[in-house]
Amino acid sequence: MAETKKVCELFDCGHRACGGCGAALAARLVTQAAGTETIVVNSTGCMEVFSTPYPETAWKVPWIHSLFENAAAVASGIDAALKKQGRREKIIIMAGDGATFDIGMISISGAFERGHDFTYICYDNEAYMNTGIQRSGATPYDASTTTSPAGKCSFGNKRPKKDMPAILAAHGAPYVATASIAYPADLKQKVDKAINTPGPCYVQVHAPCCTGWGFEGEQTIAIAKLAIETGLWANFEMVDGKVTKVKKVVRKPVEEYLKTQKRFRHLFKPKRQDAEIAAIQTIADKNAEKYGLDIKLKKEP
Amino acid sequence: MMEITEGSHAVAEAVRLCRPQVVSAYPITPQTHIVEALADFVANCQLDAEYITVENELSALSACVGASAAGSRTYSATTSQGLLLMTEVVFNAAGMRLPIVMSIANRAVGAPLSIWNDMQDSISLRDAGWLQFYAEDNQEATDLHFLAYKVAEDPSIQLPAFVCFDGFILSHTYEPIDMLSQEQVDKYLPKFNPAEKLDAKDPISFGMYATPEYYLEFRYEMDQAQKRAKEVIAKAGKEFGTLFGRDYSALLEGYHLEDAETAIVAMGSICGTVKDAIDEMRAAGKKVGLLKIRVFRPFPSEEIARALSKAKRVAVLDKNISLGAKGGATAIEVRDSMYGSTIPVKGYVLGLGGRDIRKKDIKEIVSLCEKEIGDQFYGLRKELI
Amino acid sequence: MALAIGCRARPGKSRDNKTGSWRVFKPSVDHEKCSKCGMCQTLCPEGCVHEDAEGFFDPDFMYCKGCGICAIECPKEAITMNQEEK
Q1: B273 and B338, same structural domain?
Q2: CA nearest A83 in B: which residue?
Q3: Residue C55 covered by a domain
Q4: Is residue C45 part of a domain?
Q5: Who has the most CB within 10 Å: A176, B53, B115, B191?
């Protein structure tokens, strides 16, 4: 039997994430990029819960969980303490979209405004997953969640996704990026850049959730790719508030993404909702225009 | 060194001498002079700390949680609305066993909004697991900060602590203070060096979640630490006395209590007024005494029962009320401590929202207690009701 | 074992939880097709895929939850998921 070489994983096996969990993969990739000289501040949410039921912890770096809304404030305190103690560990905040877009807004705004040195990673699975799939400020238009359910009088979530990257760039964050577990090398590169940029940096990582979005766990990466290929998720970097790098795609119609997930099933069954699908296509088209997502194909002579 | 200084400034100076590495600050009347003085110290290189101007009180205490977990001595101050806003973190910090010290310039809580003194704020959080010290005057307010850090950081305790002193009455009043020197404080209060902290050299996960299999025992451990605190306070308080001449080993202080027929139980600045009233009543032949509670958590139940065992009657003063229950927290807990005794215990809710209490009010309360009239609000303006 | 006050723990104990017991489907790697790209290791949410001395990648079946991401993403389609017999 062949000998196995073990890779140094800083996010250990035995955690209780669903099979195929996008957030678990994000935790692995981020800690790989960050290395051992890291302190992780985790908000309440799926990641914190599946990784730390006392006494089992999956974290092999120093890690702290306080509450739901205050990771950025806790990180601010750690930043101050490390400065005073002359220590060089890097601080990484890991928080879901609920903790980031909604309940954590105040502490995030304060921490970014004060310019603390940390990297804020939002693992975005587009709803409050740990509590059973409720709508957050990151839930996309028309997604069905338990608090924005599709029904006879509703097509699901009525509002578009809050533009957190823009909000944090407006706070003067020197480096802001979006990434996806579908492109792990790119994700790790961005995390590395954020860690090595002094000041408060933000990386929003798309982490599809098989349980919450309604697809088989094996499709997690494929669906993450489709989000990008349809323009509903844009992968980009912003340096000092200006978009510098964008992942360009040959765009597919949004329908190819929507039909893979139960949370959008009401747009197709019992009846196809052309107006809603068109509205979502417009969102994708606007993203493409705003970020320059489309690869310009050469015109036929 | 003797100096005449405003209560807030004395507290700020005491904190400065404790050498916190991280101070988080959010302004709220009547604590503002404390955080302003600390900012001044930092700006003038008199305090080598990171000073974080947070965006609200929840973040103020959260920053302390992070700093303390990372191994730095940390400090914040608040009151009233601010304390209630950070309530979630108050419970969290105690459960995480982080020895944060926070000054509370006691103030009434809204609604209705009030900036004036009573003790509702800190009393309302008596279940959270923080040690609670109450100062009678600004000397105590100052000294209790040194004591609080020493006890909180004791490896057998590791609980955060409130040092409470009445807003405006103490915080904004000038009194003569014997302020310790840096050398003296360094002798008394060693560097903060927790056995466990956030450190890449020894990775630990802080703040995990506990299933029903474990949660009860975690809370039991906290209660045990509270109980152990009595001895640790006694030891640290005695050492303070030996070094600096003011003994804080007792959680209670008796004033003319030994032969008192009426024993008044009170906390905070009102004790000064009570002592003056007692002097006058004694001169007129009435045997009244005071049992001052300086430490409310851990609550010195047995000690209180013992101290009051020779009185004929007990009058408990509360600048707080548990609405819908039989009075204020101190009366309820004192009465519980006296369970089994036939000595009548009467509670008086007074001074809420900064209503002034005079010596004549104390004398009136003693008279009421003698007539077995009590367990009511004192000083109600009947014309308003 | 006595509690760690403050509800804290050092690393290691998550490994006591053998998530391999969750599995319904089990991955099987065809070494003939495998190009040793390591994509399966990169994308495994458990981090339980390990490289052996010959450069092939094998899941640790004590922890593999059988999610099937590796099978879908393998560029050489070298991994198949089969219902496990229990």
Answers
A1: yes
A2: B50
A3: yes
A4: yes
A5: A176
Do C68 and A13 lie within an 8 Å CB cutoff? no
pLDDT in tens, chain B (385 residues): 899 999 999 999 999 999 999 999 999 999 999 999 999 999 999 999 999 999 999 999 999 999 999 999 999 999 999 999 999 999 999 999 999 999 999 999 999 999 999 999 999 999 999 999 999 999 999 999 999 999 999 999 999 999 999 999 999 999 999 999 999 999 999 999 999 999 999 999 999 999 999 999 999 999 999 999 999 999 999 999 999 999 999 999 999 999 999 999 999 999 999 999 999 999 999 999 999 999 999 999 999 999 999 999 999 999 999 999 999 999 999 999 999 999 999 999 999 999 999 999 999 999 999 999 999 999 999 999 9
Under an 8 A CB cutoff, do B209 and A59 touch?
Answer: no
In a domain, A212, yes or no: yes
Same domain? B360 vs B327:
yes
> How many CA atoms lie less than 13 Å away from A155 in the CB half-sphere?
17
CB B167 within 8 A of CB B31: yes
Contact B205 C5 (CB under 8 A): no
- List the CATH number of the domain containing A57: 3.40.50.970
3-state secondary structure of B349: strand
Chain A residues near residue B67 by CB distance under 8 angstroms: 77-78, 80-81
Residues of chain A in contact with residue C42, where contact means CB-CB under 8 angstroms, are: 29, 184
Domain that holds residue C38: 18-83
Asked, for residue C7, whether it belongs to a domain, the answer is: no
Q: How far does the CA of residue B237 sit from the closest CA of chain A (Å)?
A: 29
Q: Give the position of tokens 């995480």.
A: B96
CATH classification at residue C64: 3.30.70.20
Assign residue B237 the CATH number of its domain: 3.40.50.970
Angle at A224 between CA A219 and CA A227, to 5 degrees: 125
Residue A14: burial class (beta carbons within 10 Å; 0-12, 13-18, 19+): buried
- Position A120 in a domain: yes
C-alpha angle A54/A59/A60, rounded to 5°? 125
Count of domains forming chain C: 1
Tokens of B292: 């001052």
Answer whether residue A296 is part of any domain: no
Question: Does residue C5 belong to any structural domain of this protein?
Answer: no
Option in A59, A75, A77 nearest B74 (CB): A77
* Structural domain of B42: 2-244
Same domain assignment for residues B24 and B170: yes
**pTM of the full structure:** 0.97
In which domain, by residue range, is A48 found? 22-291
Q: Which residues of C touch B214 (CB under 8 A)?
A: 3, 7
Angle made by CA atoms B25, B26, B30, in degrees to the nearest 5: 105
Residue type, B125: L
